[in-house]
């Protein structure tokens, strides 16, 4: 697929996928559930085709709830699960209380997942090259967009999709207290009429 074709496909798909995933996260959190491992591999795309539609309809759904837990659960086995590239900066700190996944860390993970959709890989891939120490420090810095720009193709894709980058940034505030909730993020998305 050429870069132009990839960009056109992203322009068509991103708003709907972002809406599906943010709405799904809002629903989970309203039910008191922390997913704890949001990443591209845990998103299922459902593609429906119908002769009356000009193009297939693509819907996004969360899968793999093996790390998920309810906040109101008495279960004390909650762990600091997740996949490093998609974990929030506070989960990389040494204080155990901050390592436990929260609604805020789910929001961060979705922001990274959406950013990965734009850049085509983990935003840390070019900068860290598989080095786990560098990856941990990059995540703690709280600047995934800056690391993604180190890859020339990713930087070009980001420049071409600024309104989508703005959507990602809503979930990528380093300070978890300033990070939007899923419900507020959904409100922001509606107010922006993303992709309209």
From TrEMBL:
<dbReference type="InterPro" id="IPR000719">
    <property type="entry name" value="Prot_kinase_dom"/>
</dbReference>
<dbReference type="GO" id="GO:0004674">
    <property type="term" value="F:protein serine/threonine kinase activity"/>
</dbReference>
<dbReference type="GO" id="GO:0005524">
    <property type="term" value="F:ATP binding"/>
</dbReference>
<protein>
    <recommendedName>
        <fullName>Protein kinase domain-containing protein</fullName>
    </recommendedName>
</protein>
<dbReference type="InterPro" id="IPR011009">
    <property type="entry name" value="Kinase-like_dom_sf"/>
</dbReference>
<feature type="domain" description="Protein kinase">
    <location>
        <begin position="1"/>
        <end position="189"/>
    </location>
</feature>
<dbReference type="GO" id="GO:0005737">
    <property type="term" value="C:cytoplasm"/>
</dbReference>
<dbReference type="InterPro" id="IPR008271">
    <property type="entry name" value="Ser/Thr_kinase_AS"/>
</dbReference>
<dbReference type="InterPro" id="IPR053235">
    <property type="entry name" value="Ser_Thr_kinase"/>
</dbReference>
<dbReference type="Pfam" id="PF00069">
    <property type="entry name" value="Pkinase"/>
</dbReference>
């Amino acid at each position: 697929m050429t870069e132009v074709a990839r960009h056109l496909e992203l322009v068509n798909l991103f708003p709907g996928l972002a809406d599906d995933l943010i709405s799904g996260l809002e629903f989970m959190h309203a039910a008191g559930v922390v997913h704890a491992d949001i990443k591209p591999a845990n998103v299922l795309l459902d593609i429906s085709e119908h002769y009356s539609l000009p193009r297939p309809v693509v819907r996004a759904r969360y899968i793999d709830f093996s790390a998920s837990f309810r906040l109101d659960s008495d279960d004390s086995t909650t762990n600091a699960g997740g996949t490093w590239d998609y974990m929030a900066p506070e989960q990389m700190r040494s204080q155990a209380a901050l390592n436990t996944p929260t609604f805020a860390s789910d929001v961060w993970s979705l922001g990274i997942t959406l950013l990965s959709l734009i850049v085509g890989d983990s935003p840390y891939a070019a900068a860290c090259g598989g080095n786990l120490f560098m990856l941990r420090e990059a995540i703690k810095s709280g600047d995934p967009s800056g690391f993604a720009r180190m890859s020339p193709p990713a930087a070009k894709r980001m420049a071409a999709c600024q309104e989508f980058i703005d959507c990602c940034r809503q979930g990528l505030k380093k300070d978890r207290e300033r990070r939007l909730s899923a419900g507020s993020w959904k409100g922001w998305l509606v107010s922006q009429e993303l992709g309209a």
